[in-house]
Amino acid sequence: MDEKKKIALLESVVKYYRIKGILQDNLGAKVSFSGLNNRYFVWKDGNHSTAIDISSDNCPLCDLYLGLLECQGCPIYEHTKDSYCHDTPWQNLNESFLFKANHYDCEEKDRIRETRSYVVDDALIKLVQDEIDFLISLIKEIDDE
Fold it and tell me: Which pTM does this prediction carry?
């Protein structure tokens, strides 16, 4: 068993439980995209925000494995055989944030994205729980090795 992998997975689970808690505490609040590296903000009462960072900059696994070898050695990569968390619940979560928080104009791809807000709902919280469940399943795989 690789202790570094397990610790990084556990740290990731804790991070997503924190994010889930923020979203549950702010059910019905607005969320907007900051425009940089998958960072989002939950707005409560229109003036207070809490950051939600699902970027590789805030990922314990990426800290260990993202680099020249494109995720090789990462337990997520070992499970999916794909880099950058493709085909994982994280991708679904990120795409949901992007789809809901941004407006894309196909004719103006090179322009800065126009930020849109949307309301935190149970579907978004479920996507976070899916990521938590996925990470826990990887911990179990490591324990079974």
Answer: 0.82
102 within 8 A of 117, measured Cβ to Cβ? no
- Per-residue pLDDT reduced to its tens digit, 70-94: 898 999 999 999 999 999 999 998 8
CA distance 45 to 30: 9
| Long-range contacts (CB closer than 8 Å, 24 or more residues apart) made by 137-142 | 138/9, 138/75, 138/76, 138/79, 139/6, 139/9, 139/10, 139/13, 141/75, 141/79, 142/1, 142/2, 142/5, 142/6, 142/9, 142/75
**Cβ-defined contacts of 132-135 (< 8 Å, 24+):** 132/13, 132/16, 132/17, 132/20, 133/89, 134/88, 134/89, 134/90, 135/9, 135/12, 135/13, 135/16
E-state strands within the chain? 30-33, 39-44, 48-53, 102-103, 114-115, 117-119
